[in-house]
Amino acid sequence: MSAIRVDAKVVMLGKESVGKTSLVERYVHNRFLVGPYQNTIGAAFVAKPIQIGEKVVTLGVWDTAGSERYEAMSRIYYRGARAAIVCYDLTDSSSFQRARFWVKELQNCEEHCKIYLCGTKGDLIEGDRSVRQIDYHDAQDFAEEIGAQHFETSSKTGKNVDELFYKVAEDYNNSAFQYMTEETGVDLGQKKDSYFYSCCHNN
Amino acid sequence: MTLAAGALTTQTNPLNRVLDLHRRYYYYKRTHLTSSIMSQRTERRGIHVDQSDLLCKKGCGYYGNAAWQGLCSKCWREEYQRVRQKQIQDDWALAEKLQREEDAAYASSHGAQTQPHGQSSAPHPGHASLGPFSKFEEKKTNEKTRKVTTVKKFFSPSSRTPPKKETQEGKTPSPSISRHSSFETDQVSRDFVDFLKNLQRPGREIHKQCRAFIVNMSSKKDLSAEELSECVQDFYQNMADRLMSHFKGSSESVEQVMDQVEKYIMTRLYKGVFCPETSDDERKDLATQNRIRALHWVTIQMLCVSMDEEIPEVSENVVKAITDVIEMDSKRVPRDKLACITRCSKHIFSAIRITKNEPASADDFLPALIYIVLKANPPRLQSNIQYITRFCNPSRLMTGEDGYYFTNLCCATAFIEKLDAQSLNLSPEEFERYMSGQASPRLHSSEGDWALAGSAPDATAVATTNPVLVQLNQNLELLSGLISKQERVTEAAQSLQADLLSWPQSVEREVHGVLEKYPLEVAPRTVSAIDANNVDNDNLPPPLTPQVFAG
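ok -> structure tokens follow
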């Protein structure tokens, strides 16, 4: 199979109909495209390379089923993820409660996973400010509290979508760079133990 | 009589039954028409196993076992040892051949430069044709010493420590371990060797590492599944690290080689590590299988699947998806199993896209996958999932597209295990009734009319409008035709049976009749009288007298 090689796993979390799929769709068809990408028949899994400075980072974006029906299984999804984009609907306060739930889950189970808080459907509040249910500052405070990046996006207009994914790729690139320099620093003379420092050798 | 009756009860298929009767009938006729009918009959009654059949085929006097091809445990072990040694020798011969070819290629391209290692490569010509086993041990030690030098040569521009495997490599595997050689494994070995040839010298090292690893693994069969997994994963990691330094960080080449390594190793190890006895995989398999069977009533609507199976293209994709997920069990290499899951998922995506006219999201995909798994009831599902998790190259499993679909399959399986009334939007009572088989959801659903169509007066009208019902009716007709045919065959079989039963009786009657008609009368013995009385009988020709012809 000629599947694209993927550097980092990014998992999309969020309540049903919050717009995860649209966000991914928007991202896949934007102009940051480098090289050919697979002609996806579904938006559930997409792999897309992004140019970060000198390097190309390929993000594998995993869409997840948001329905509460599958809540018990969500842990299987974000296992080993390097980044999680937790989505909430700016016009739906219940979706923000769900976002809090996922953040807590991630903090408990995947400490190496960076969290990105993402408010969706920004175009709706631009048209009518009164439909906004989640205050920007509340979300920002929450993001700071959990050490996450916070974005408000619109898949319809494309606002902040590229920025969000660029940030994810950039952070991954930086952390991977750190990770590698750290490793060579330790490496001298004891290469054979190097895999003990890798987080995923025992699946 | 008992013969015929016995034949009838053991055969289930009427056609077979008839054929069998014919065969026996003719056999019977041919061999016993003129000899004792009764004795044959008693001999054939019931199952009769001769004592000698139970004994070891080698004739050592112990009882044999069908599972060991009729040998006793001791003879079986000896036999297997022999087969396995042959396999090992063959493998070494292959490795030798590769080595020699590469040496030749290397020598021709580098002139005499390679000679400093002449000492280490000297053993080959002597062992070019592999002799008896005594030579094999010797050769093995040679291989080992040479390996150490060449490994250093290849892998250590710096003085890196050689891999830990080498210290364990000398262990001989325990005799109870057998490697099954089959066409498939041979083919994979050959492909692997061909692939490595392109890599020149590193290829030889890779092959040796893999061989050593497999031998090493076969001595560890009593480890738990998790420990085995750990061993394999460590090996992958070591191999990847070294390849990485060799290919100077070109991760694509590394991955290519790793794929081949995985294929080679796992094809060899498959039998021993798939669903091992030390784990409870098999029990889980059965539990899941029964669970899926018990959930046969779950409909596409309950799972909120956005697939419309009325559309021919969709149902075609559904069938393909089911085939793919079932096919997974037949593959040996984790990567091939993953490929099956991916193909299955792609078909599901196609089905959803055709139904909804837009790309499927995870919210559509997961329920559809659950539905497919429920419909397919893939064999040994849990074992396969465990096997992939334990022995797949982690880089593939963790991030790539295959990994995504595999994760979804895990989720689907977990969902099916935990599935309850709430997850199907049913009341607990309904769920209980369906589970216990007291009710079928089809009768209540809006599409349930076909179930009632049979009793409704306008059944034919409905049947002609709905293509599914037309198909259903056709199938019913076909079935009733088959039933009547089967009845006819059964009748024929029964009349043949009656014939056969009455036949020996009629023969017996005939024989009795003949015996009565022509009672055997023993004629008085007059033979001696003939000799005595007719000494001078004129009717007899005169005794021959020698005549002398004048020459």
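Residues 5-199 of chain A form a domain with the Rossmann fold fold (CATH 3.40.50.300).
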